[in-house]
Amino acid sequence: MVKQRVALRGHHLICLNFYQGEGYSSAFIKNLNRILKKLKKAEGLVIEGPDEVCSSCPHLKEAECCFQPNSNEVIEYLDKLALRLLNLKAGDAFIFKKIKSQLPRLIEEWERKACLDCNWRYVCLPLIGQLKKVKEVKS
Length: 139
Hints:
By secondary structure, the protein is mainly alpha-helical. The chain has a domain of about 100 residues. Helix content is about 55%, strand content about 10%. The strands form two sheets. A three-stranded mixed beta sheet has the order 1-2-5. Helix 3 crosses helix 4 and helix 4 packs across helix 5. The N and C termini lie far apart (about 45 Å).
């Protein structure tokens, strides 16, 4: 029996590491919890466009994010940035634990280019600070 892969777009590879049980709706949170549980056992697959996280997002309309007027363009930029930082591309398999291990190396650039205008920044900031300290200790 083949385990089903978890399909994720670029920025979710990084952002899911900072998930703290918050989300747009109870259905969205339930889906995130399910995805993270699957990622502990199954490998993931990088995809372009809406993924398993997006599938329960109330802002997904006709395969595009409609949270704000330019959200879809911003998300596509974040996806490309994340994939560049992780040295991955659509179609690549990944192990979520290995993604997490790369965060100290890339977090400063990610924070500078991705987090400044993010609505979820308040959730991530404490964890980003911890990652920076880990990087400093290893340096």
